[in-house]
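Hi! If you just cloned this repository, the fastest way to understand the data is to look at a raw example. We've pasted two of them here, unedited. The first protein comes first, obviously.
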Amino acid sequence: MSNRCQLYKKFLLIGVLLGYFMLNPLAPAYAMHIMEGFLPLRWCLFWAVLTLPFLVLGMRSIGRTVREHPEMKMLLGLAGAFTFVLSALKMPSVTGSSSHPTGVGLGTVLFGPTAMTVLGFIVLIFQALLLAHGGITTLGANTFSMAVVGPLVAWGLYRVCVRLKTPLWAGVFLGALFGDLCTYVTTATQLALAFPSPVGGFTASLVKFMAIYAVTQVPLAVSEGLLTVVIFNLLTVHNRRELEELAVLARPEKPAGEGRS
């Protein structure tokens, strides 16, 4: 148990150091998190209402997990911290914008997509209040893109890979990769709906916003997928029992006749 606590402390320390040296919340940039006051009120309300059912389902999912497996609280905290650190690292993009990883793939594989909605929602609140990254009025839109669509895509791809019996790392990698990319596609769609171009309308705006993000986001998504696989592999070594309890890893089969008198 002490070794696992030490592992968690190392993960959190790495996260704090990364956040300290790489995060620059005061730099003027249009980040993937839609900033405070940027969306019209009707769109803020629309995305908030659309996100609410997933939050309810996620709270039920987390409540059930904690009741059945109280020892998973630390692992839940790790998944949330991983998301907080990665999604707070803003990287310069083109035309004065920025991109960043999302970090939702790991928690999705461990606890499912709706549980990740709740963790992502909490992460976005702290980032909006403490880092001026995102906003309260745009919380519904940001949660829907990063903590609803991203985890659903990641979970779907991961489960397809499991059914196809591909290597586990491949499912984790593809889930994290496309969960990240689909978050950005959703954000671009949200902005295009709110601000259609005078010439070309929604489609022209969507192409513009996606082009802004694509240059930096594709390599970031690949990097996030690789990092998620590294962390997942560490957990399979140091937290194998917990992953078996969550049915992420299969329990080893007992030899025939074992346990019989």
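Ok, and the second one:
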Amino acid sequence: MSSESAHTVTLPQPQSLERSNDPASATHTEGEATLDESSGTLAHVPLPAYLQQTYWWAYLHPASVRIFERQWLVNLILWGNFAKLRDAALKELEPFSHGDILQVACVYGDFTERLTQCLGPTGRLDVVDVAPVQLENLKAKLDRDASRISLHHQDSTNLRFADASYDCVVVFFLLHEQPENVRIRTIAQALRVVKPGGKVVFVDYHRPDWLNPFRYVMIPILASLEPFAMDLWRREITDWLPDEARNLAIDKQTFFGGLYQKVVITAE
């Protein structure tokens, strides 16, 4: 859901919570899971036009959260593969459990809750999203004593964190929701804020094998509901990397007959 800034719509703002955020750094404050603030109010981050026009029904309308925030439904949408894909991403994060982890965009289902359970004693998690309603939903899902978790109202194409701020960045089923120009900027930002030796983990759709029957089921579904998702069938995630990142170590794994992919990029 986190994405390019464009026009604004009126949405209920999350309540002011106990945190003042310095947009130039990734420092943290103890307390329960918090939303970042600026001068006592949430920083103004406009909702992108494409998100309002294409995905209002899934992520922005208040009823969306009530409908889609069901573990069984999220798993059904991914044809029973949610847990497998979630765990594949979390396994990549294990070596960084004592460091700083960034999740780009909120996720329906228990992805973030499971991620927090993997944090070591000194580990921290930041989550960014462009939609306030999604941040409020995630805050409600997290434990009340989530003292090492901070939620940030930010745009994935313009992260307000310093270069090399995070040991690991995870982008779980976001890229397929973004137009190509937005996707390119999101990927560049994820690579910018990861530390040398750290990883950026992408999990998303992928072009399935020719013999995979879901290939023919998914074409009309994606074409009608996820108009940008077919980009990931036509091209590789690595095609959208900035020039300076094209020689980085890249590991790719596909799942469920090629319908899903995990791409891990290790920074230098």
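That's it. A detail worth noticing about the second one: The domain at 46-266 is CATH 3.40.50.150 (Rossmann fold).
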